[in-house]
## 1
Amino acid sequence: MTNLPRYTLQPYKGMWSRYTCPQCLRHKVFSRYIDITTDETIADDVGRCSREVNCGYHLKPSEYFKSIDHRPWTIAGNGNGFGYRPLTYKDFEPSYLPKRMIRQTVRHYDNNHFVQYLAAKFGREVAYEQARLYLVGTSKHWPGACIFWQVDSADRVRTGKIMLYDAQTGKRVKEPFNHIAWAHKLLRKSGSQESQQSPKDAAGTAYHTQYPNNNLSDFRSSRLSDFNLKQCLFGEHLLQYHPGKPVAICESEKTAIIASIYYPELLWLAAGSLQGLNAGKCKCLEGRTVILVPDVNAYEQWVAKANQLSAALPAVNFRVMRFLEDAATPQQKAAGWDVADYL
């Protein structure tokens, strides 16, 4: 297998994946380098400006890490003073949200556009059951929005992705802007704003309702200022209840839930995005057979990703489903269908 570089420029996924250049200060012209093992950016200023003639800024990861301030090491005490030691997992341990937040949101499905779409297709009982199984919450951040909570295999809450769907079509609402937000960011934002009113969480429930004795205020001030987000697979919390089931991983949370209704013999999880599949997220799958189910037009990328994952996690048996790529019509390829569109 060809040795691939650890760092690469972030692939273009829309203008949200382009940033302000730290040198010329032009907006949406700067591509950041990401670590392919985590799909996370290295630093805000490590990347390349597309204005090669008028700006020409390009800071490579190798140049960034040459600086002693940015080396992937940390100061450690020893008997003779201080030296450097390699960073360990403990230095990058994920932050977690209180699990009580979920209990306040996994309800009010009559006001949840996504769950109502499922109810129209599969009936109320099935829709509500699957929503609760996958810990789908209801948010007031936008009327009708849902929360896809990310809970890892140890039942720790990493974050919640808040999205808005059309209740009739089941499609994401992208106009006049792409309706995506994150629970940990909204919680941090509310903690930084002074208000005479009770602050609201991502679900619109008053904090003091969830956290009597001001416990959340203490959590917010002490934990969210340096919140270290490490996403996990959506639906990962279900692994502990199905130790023998083969796993299927698709791109979107919506697709995982719909596919789980049609094919319950598989445990369906979601990577969250095309670039959201990495070794860090998949470590929880050791000892499993895992079928990757890419969207149409993403087959080759996920085959390459499967090769990387197999090398990093030899205890996981990765396979890539090709059916969608072979069966898709030109119109379906242009529309970027996924397995839920076929089902």
## 2
Amino acid sequence: MRSRGLWMLMIALLAGLAAVVLAAQWMQGQSVQKGRIAVANADIELGGRISAEMIRMVDWPSDSVPQGAFVDPNPLNGRVVLVALQRGEPLTEARLAPVGSKGGLSAVVPEGRRAMTVRVNDVVGVAGFALPGTYVDVMVNTQAEGGQRGGDRERSISKIVLERILVLAVAQEADRDSTKPKVVNAVTLELTPRDAEVLDLARSVGTLSLVLRNPSDPVRTVTTGATKQELLGLAAAEAAPAKPTPVARTQKPTPSRAAPPQASPDVRLADAGATPPAAAVAVPRACVEIVRGLSKVTECF
């Protein structure tokens, strides 16, 4: 009886050992092969230049290595990042400027684009909410001439001249991860060459305002601008046709009953010693005497 219990204990120990071995083999089969890639060893701001101290190599699952990742840290030394990176983020080719680019904001400006800075204040800069990475519209308020030559009058007009413009930097900061409002005196915008010309003209002829917009709203709108006449409701009044002024009817004067009779023109001319008009001179007429029975009748023609 005692030997039978020992046998049962030995069988149980063997079964447990076999289970441990099988579990270890199964876990080894499920383990993922790992490689080593380069990641940021510190926070790197947009346009920053990478140094050797900013790079470290870490193990990374082989089946989820980011495209363009670096397995050798040496080619990364001196490269410039196009986006702000946090510590531990992989360094990939898509996040780096071309080889030979200098650090700073110029490396962030895409090919075919330009960076231009405009002066703002707490109102023009949308109370500091125009941060790097946001989109704004640019509106100008100026004086437009109206009326005809010789009687020109200036009228105020506000017009959106540029839409969906990317803010690259505020003052000297280009960090796009910050969401806290920053009241600054200058904002740098990303523009096409044509937009840069429009913006330069707009700030020379009037005052600028930035209008914050949703980055997911790509729809562009066409407006005619708001004028002072429309603001005060004068445009509708000028467009309304003028009503004709009623003309008062004049009544002919009624002659007085006690008025003395007027003399004929011939009499007045005779009294004045003037010659009567030719139309008033009597013209001789031909007369014929007609006899009908015992009566005679004279007819003049």
